[in-house]
Amino acid sequence: MSVPTVVVHRDGDVLAKAVAARIITRLVDVQSAKGSASLVLTGGTVGIATLAAIRDTPARDAVDWRRLDIWWGDERFLPSGDPERNETGARQALLDHVDLDPERVHVMLGPDSGLSAEESADAYATELRKSARPEDHGPAPSFDVTLLGMGPDAHVASLFPGMPALYDTRAVVAVHGAPKPPPTRISLTLPTIQGSREVWVVAAGDEKSGAVRLALSESGPVQVPAAGARGRGRTLFLLDRAAAGKIPPGLGRIASP
Asked: What share of the chain is helix, strand, coil (3-state, %, to 5)?
């Protein structure tokens, strides 16, 4: 796994715009090199603000949206269209505003599908497996970029400290009893996340600063899940000044003075 690079931006608004620019550049580069690209989305304030920033910049037209696969790192197990679903926020912020191939938007199904949470996780794992290629060396694609938010408790996706999902080696799991609502969720596991070519952890706010410090230390991922958020080729921690407030001096590169 790669060693994290830390980039610090002035505030959450600048951070969202900077991450949006990075995503566009990365997708264009990948599509130029191999024709198509894959992006794993996250929810949360900064995650959705980043998607809105992509929507609002003319540079978005540089991406061939028809040749992009959209996945999710996790989803709240709620009915389709529920405002609390990550999918709903992503569609409103960006996905409904660009020319995506619907077959390449891979949604984690909710209870209105008739599936249980476990069945939904299994269905997503099957979809991942069908999209994986021999060179991915696993049951899921090596995503070009996996975006992850991070909670004040250092959770990423729906992998919360000390919970059974952190020990699971399957590609996708159902999570029950999550410490923040709703309690039932679907999540990629750490092995799937770690199979990504690049993992970008995006965090803003002083309440995240302690978790950021732990995630960049020698902490283990069972108690600090973000410490296991690493990509095969590259890992970025993209932070605002407040979230970076407790990391050791000199660890982060200041991008927005």
From this structure: 40, 20, 40
